[in-house]
Amino acid sequence: MDWLYTLSGFLVGLIVGVTGVGGGSLMTPLLVLFFGVSPATAVGTDLLYASITKSLGGWVHGRNGTVDWKVVGLLGTGSLPAALLTIGLFKFLALDEAALKGLVTGVLSIALLLTAAALLLKEWIKKIALRDDGTVYELHHRHLPGATVATGAIVGVLVTISSIGAGVLGTVALLFLYPRMATAKVVGTDIAHAVPLTAVAGLGHLALGTVDLVLLGSLLLGSLPGIYIGSHLSAKVPEKVLRPILAVMLMLIGGKLMVS
């Protein structure tokens, strides 16, 4: 079974390398539906997996100057306490396995459908920030920090419960909140924020006992070379072709989880 985990890690890593998205939204459902891993363990393991794999990307973006650290700080101000509170709530409620499975599966399916919609509507969302006269719609500077912190809090809860939301949903939220920000900086800022968020949420799950360290090692063994190869193929594979295919896949997986 370990080699199948490694192969899955490689394939998901390849997709992430080519498209920049799809880590949690593919890995967690794959572990639940294909390998029969309990939803809580799949989420906890995937969170630590994401924090390790995204660390390299965050470091590269930081070196290249494509991270807005002020925005990362605002997002983290909302997301990190939200992640800790969510873990604390899990501990306090002490849900039995059936209730925990129902909660995680429900949130996971909704997060997958939201991610699929965000993938399909990404360009449209970007366009609605532009007025007909060519000017850019922006929140008033007075409200922007609060809106960014609130966005971080929502993403923090979503990521901690489902391991999904820090990627595509975070990027789309930044595109809407900061329409003047360059695309490379949006991606870099989102990845830099995802690293501490997934680490905090993942360590919280580790404390709860919902992380499989052997599984984590098997996934990393495949995903790291997969991401490396995929990043080199990204220029040769058109994202406009892959994005709708990935969105349809996520919709089908989300629907499957919702009815299971």
Report a brief summary of the structure.
This protein has 260 residues and is mainly alpha-helical. The protein is built from 10 helices and no strands. The chain has helices at residues 2-19, 23-33, 39-64, 69-93, 97-128, 144-162, 168-177, 183-208, 213-233, 239-259.
Structural summary, described in words:
The protein is an all-alpha fold and 260 residues long. The protein has ten helices and no strands. The longest helix has 32 residues, at 97-128. The two termini are 24 Å apart.
Backbone shape: globular
Overall structural domain count: 1
Quote the beta fraction. under 5%
**Helical amount:** over 70%
What is the H/E order?
Answer: HHHHHHHHHH
Alpha-carbon distance between the two ends: 24 Å
Summarize the SSE layout with pairings.
Blueprint: H1 2-19, H2 23-33, H3 39-64, H4 69-93, H5 97-128, H6 144-162, H7 168-177, H8 183-208, H9 213-233, H10 239-259
